[in-house]
Please model this.
Amino acid sequence: MRDELETIGVPVLLMLLLAATIGGFGLNTALFLHLQQWFALWPDAVWENITLLGDALASLALLGLLAFRHPQLLPTGLLAGLVATLLTRSLKPLLAMERPLAVLGQQVHVAGIELQTFSFPSGHTTAAFVVAGVYALVLQRGRLTALLYCAALLVGCSRIAVGAHWPMDVAAGAACGWFSAWVGWKLANHWRWPATSGGQQTLAGLFLLFALLLFWLDSGYPQAFWLQMAIAAASAGSCIAALRLRWRKPAPRPTP
Model:
């Protein structure tokens, strides 16, 4: 895998530079309106399904999809999610930026839920980049990293397409999510408890709970309902398989 500076530092710095450029030169509104026109080539149903992948609970369920084969995804994802939540929940009320609908009114095409405030940074984009970053860092496959980054970027584009966020929000969210994934990965590498049998079972049970809660989530995007159900079912099945595997074959205790 590429060194950490290239894999983590460069994308984060580029996204932050993009956000600063958009904000500094006052490009947010014009870029948002142009991108909405281009993204209108795809129907709302497509964008609602894509944007669901950035929902916080759906993101946690996505991290559980390969829990039975790659248990390290769970502690890394949990810690990365906590870091990302701390970042976004601190910045949103602190900056209190209005969303496109509150500023532009009827010029904005909205799909799904109508949002007015707490725009910066994009939480869905942050969550999508957390998932992509965690998978990239844990699996450590070069080509897969690029594909995951592009997939997360598509989720960010969906936030503009559904009228929920400015381009600057998306760029900042991408930086927050990718950085949070790296922090979570670093912390998880020094966390011994998840390597124990009890730790693996507890984490698998926790992510099973996330998957089950996803069945009852009102995401605000009704056209993504069946994708939501599919993610919840697949993640629940994976976590159950992980629990059965750890129950039958306990993990060895970590050496001191």
In short: The chain has one domain: 4-248. DSSP finds eleven helices and no strands in the chain. The chain has a mean pLDDT of 92. Residues 4-248 form one domain.
